[in-house]
Specification:
With 250 residues, this protein is mainly α. It has five helices and no strands. The protein has a domain of 147 residues: Up-down Bundle (Methane Monooxygenase Hydroxylase, Chain G, domain 1). The protein starts with a helix and ends with a helix.
Amino acid sequence: MATGSSNYWEDLRKQARQLENELDVKLVSFSKLCTSYSHSNARETRRHRYSPDTTPLLNGSSQDRMFETMAVEIEQLLTKLTGVNDKMTEYSSTAGVTSINAALMHTLQRHRDILQDYTHEFHKTKANFLAIREREDLLGSVRKDIESYKTGSGVNNRRTELFLKEHEHLRNSDRLIEETISIAMATKENMTSQRGMLKTIQSKMNTLANRFPAVNNLIQRINLRKRRDSLILGAVIGICTILLLLYAFH
């Protein structure tokens, strides 16, 4: 029974290694296809820029078909490898298997990591390819619009350019007028606020000026009272001194 289980495990490992090898080869080719698609479209863009009448040598639709075919094949291989890993997981969860071979779980984890890496690499390469194709489709539509514009009537193009320039001048004039009005409004608001501040300062100055005479009068009264108190105190001291002298001589 143990021998049969061991053979079953080894058969699963062989299937997993075979699928991993096939996936590795497919992913390398898939990545090269994405790179060649990017480079070929870059060359086509440069060729189109410098010689618009040149017909591109590479056929993008054939590359798109190759991409779709390879993507389907890789997805099928990933599905098969996932199924093998699931069977290996079921086998490892069988009672008594873990106690027989402790390295079995390590091997299973390594196959899971490989599957995860391949899946991540496939989705990343596929996303890059789709992004490049979408960008090239957008650039292609832009180039078509430019070509259609260039191949139009020269007089109409010239008139269109003049109209566009005139429209742009009008927009710039409107923008300058709006900026000037905004600056004038801001200046008016600043002058109004400054006027209010000056009025407040003037009212405070008038209030202080009105209060100064009253303060001067109060200070004069305090000085007079201090002088009167000093005279009274001097008189009292003098009288006391005279009385002491009279008392001492008698």
